[in-house]
Structures
1.
Amino acid sequence: MIRKRISPTLSFEVFPPNSKVGTKKLIHTLDAFKELSPSFISVTCNNSTRNMENTTVHLSGYIKQELGIPSVAHLPATYLTKGRVLTILKQLDKLGVNHLLALRGDEQPTMEPCNDFKYASDLITFIKEQAPHFYISGACYPEIHPDSKSKVEDIHYLKKKTEAGCNNLISQLFFDNKIFYQFQENCALANINRPILAGIMPIVNRSQALRLFKTSGTYLPKKFLRILDRYEHHPEALRDAGLAYAVDQIVELVTQNVDGIHLYTMNNSATANYIYQTTSSLFKTQEELLSI
Ligand code: FAD
């Protein structure tokens, strides 16, 4: 469950590495995150994984039990049966993890979907029936989901998703705050009145940005492209400028009363630490500021 003390919230996202060495490194990163006391840490899940227990479930449990930080397990359901979902919910319950990001997940060309959950809203309805004590987040897309034919359709199904029982929404990353504000407005017009956490990814190298642009088609504003061009051969400056860009986005969003910032950390503790150190007072309540 999200800690109630702070609004806006500041949360982190990590992904389970593929190797034992990577997992060991992530544990060190998570231990370092404890000092930053994020509102929660979410753990992604590969949609094609058959091994969720040893990855997402295990790491979510570690965050909750060993670090005492609320954790969120991502649950993409295209390739899960209802029975498997029930088993996973029981495992999470045992570990004290009661917050999920309920997802459809991306289709894998080589795998047959189970057809128990066609859309995230089917999964949300099922969890609400079977385990109503879970707090459920849903994904949302300020630049619309690539499968949606139009913004109208995208917002229409997002509303259905919240009506199915989604408690809040976590957004896809974006680099232009204006797109996020427009999206918030569209949600308000459609009466989607759940908190929306803004997804921010600090870009710390050029290949990361270009890969993102290629795979997700995320809009990169001119100001951002100029940074990539100017510091193409100067990785240190590109990293500094990328971090400053993310901080700039966060400051503006918080000033505009965003419900929360969800930081895509890419398992990089230095990045999360920098953002935290630079912005932490923005996430304190008025009472906390007065008592400093
Ligand atoms: P849905 O909400 O089901 O929407 C998918 C598409 O179907 C949209 O175009 C929607 O408009 C449409 N739609 C919805 N309902 C209906 C309906 N009833 N009839 C017709 N059309 C409908 N993926 C992973 O595999 N693992 C992760 O850990 C992960 N984490 C993520 C975290 C965040 C914050 C975000 C934003 C995305 C994440 N994803 C992850 C990616 C996500 O799984 C994909 O974007 C996926 O393609 C859509 O998932 P969804 O839950 O948003 O789908």
Note: Residues 235-255 form the longest helix (21 residues).
2.
Amino acid sequence: MSAHGDPIPMTSRAGGPLTGTAHVPGDKSISHRALILGALSVGETTVTGLLEGQDVLDTARAMRAFGAEVARDDDGTWHIYGVGVGGFAEPDQVIDCGNSGTGVRLIMGAMATCPITVCFTGDASLNGRPMARVTDPLTLFGARATGRAGGRLPMMIEGARTPVPVRYTVPVPSAQVKSAVLLAGLGAPGQTVVIEKEATRDHTERMLAGFGAQITVEHSDEGRVITLTGQPDLRPQTIAVPRDPSSAAFPVCAALITPGSDVLVPNIGLNPTRAGLFETLREMGADLSYENPREEGGEPVADLRARYSPDMHGIEVPPERAASMIDEYPVLSVVAACAQGITKMHGVKELRVKESDRIDAMAQGLRACGVTVEDGPDWWHVTGLGAGNVPGGAVVQSRLDHRIAMSFLCLGLAAQAPVGVDDGGPIATSFPIFEGLMGGLGAHLTRG
Ligand code: S3P
């Protein structure tokens, strides 16, 4: 079932090449953070290029419930009139974050050092995901959390009345946990220190600095040590959200596996904490170039050009690269199925606690499409059949997971028989224009 309605079965099949230009939507991670930090500053923050996917719209609604004014112009510019650090009002309703782990975890962090009590919930996918990874550090600030067994939503959080700063080493490679602790640290006096052993996406650190917080990053034997001085006056900003590399991954990978394709995906943020997929694809022999590389708003940006690449081969993806491409493993496994030889992916336990268990969802779906997949707790191997040799011909469950749905719809474009997904509805959480954009490139995508 879709998050908010009836299932939308979708099918893709091989047809002509994919050609043209694909303008993918704004970055999901940056969009959530722009709304939350806008709400935590006093005055008007203006955002262009915001992703208007359901996940981000749910965060916008939540910010209104905490007292911020959030409005959208007809031209797509968003305005946030924030309430300031410590200024969140207690919502008089449950905060429903829908499908979004990023939304709920970041908002929990932002409210955990405010003297308010908030009840959080989400859809069936989100309510099955672990929250203790966030509530454990938040209790160190003085917050209290009561959820269902296993630290699941729905969950009530009572913010700390007299918060204390914390020093916390994040036990799993998670930008969401790191960000929740930093956002909570905003409301505590003194310095909050977050240490991550492996670098994860650093949008929160960059954006906090942009909003005027005092934040430093040092590298030590322990890892990346981030120090934030609490209770700052955040200054409202004008933010242009770059386009999402995680969404760009779909037209890029579809072009690489669809005969005759040549697709340009302009203005993609290539922050090194996000660009691991593209490096991996190039190592596999993909014809993928970065055109017009430049800097925009302090982030590296380029236009990606992907051409059909029939000679790709499997590789062993370095586990230390996992955090920089964690959302891209599903679509990478589709490319791997169309390459020659085995692609080995290790150190990816986190994939089991995303919107779905992504290793299991992809492994089962790929097997149904005639591809051999082996998997263990934190690894999986996909045996590629070579270009044009994937049988396809299955209807796969998308498990309330947008990236599973989009990955299999990409596979159908290169498989011998059509590939269906039982529900394409979740695609609207991150890439609401996916169907039209892929159709515009020439993809044969139908409903039903
Ligand atoms: C995100 C962090 C990642 C990623 C998610 C977005 C973020 O999750 O999978 O889609 O915006 O911070 P984890 O931090 O749980 O790895």
Note: The chain has two domains: 10-26+242-447, 28-239.
